[in-house]
């Protein structure tokens, strides 16, 4: 499909050298890495962060918020936790307390974090789309690309 480098913002926000889940990376290192991504010709960044993303918001051609139903997100969080516990997926060790906190965070995302994120995105609303599924996102992006070609 697309040959565009994709970056998971969790890899910038969290300390990837830490042995446990939940340790934040140093802000200056994180910001330097983000600036390097933003200087690239093409990129996709993925994550729920917003307060420190101004460099990518400014350079982005498109800002998409993908918002599946909260229970779908719960299912994915629990499934990922299970895969990690079973050793199917390699990642930092998470405890049940970490899972609980992540599920709580997930349930307040729509009412709290997303509203604050939208305030940060407001200056870039002309680049913004909101989707409920990955299929909807792909469909809208392809439609947009096709319209710009014609």
TrEMBL record:
Highest taxon of the lineage: Bacteria
InterPro entries assigned to the protein according to its UniProt record, in alphabetical order: Cytidylate_Kinase-2
Protein name: DNA topology modulation protein FlaR-related protein
Organism: Candidatus Nitrospira nitrificans
